[in-house]
Amino acid sequence: MLISRHILAGSLAVAAVTAGAVSLGAGPAAAESCPSGATCAYTTTNWASAAGPVTGNNTNLTQFSKWTGAESIYNNGTSCNVYIYSSTGYHGTRYALNRGTGWKTIAGSDIWHHAYSNQWYGC
Which of 14, 46, 71, 92 could pair covalently with 87 via S-S, beta carbons 3.0-4.6 A apart? Predict the structure, then answer.
């Protein structure tokens, strides 16, 4: 299903977002290493590696190797959705990720190895 700047929640749904495809998954067991209240980046697909958690808004995630090498992301936020940006300072392509969901792969998207800032919303 093709959509622009909107992500559909749901298990294994696929959405083409702006410049690339992002595979969604709602399987909490697969992202158990992501602490409650955090959004986590993984340097492998399917949340298979160690989590790189961040909390709060972050204008520059380039200091974290998990985010600069991100291949999958999970939002384990307790009350907020999160925007992930392809550039620092909340610039570049913006992707929305609902709490309790994640992208099993971000291959082909602008945030593949370039998840450089995040901002919580809808709290």
Answer: 92
Per DSSP, the residues of 80-120 read -EEEEEEEGGGEEEEEEE-TTEEEEE-TTSTTTT---EEEE
95-109 pLDDT, tens per residue? 999 999 999 999 999
Residue 74 CA to residue 47 CA, distance in Å, equals 8
* Dihedral Cα 24, 27, 30, 31, nearest 10 deg: 80
Say which residues have a Cβ less than 8 Å from residue 51's Cβ, sequence separation at least 6: 31, 33, 34, 35, 38, 40, 41, 42, 66, 74
Element holding 67 (H helix, E strand): helix 65-68
pLDDT in tens, 8-67: 233 223 333 333 445 454 444 458 899 999 999 999 999 999 999 999 999 999 999 999
pTM above 0.70, yes or no: yes
The class that CATH gives domain 14-121 is mainly beta
Handedness of CA 34, 40, 44, 49 (dihedral sign): negative
Total Cβ atoms within 10 A of residue 2 = 8
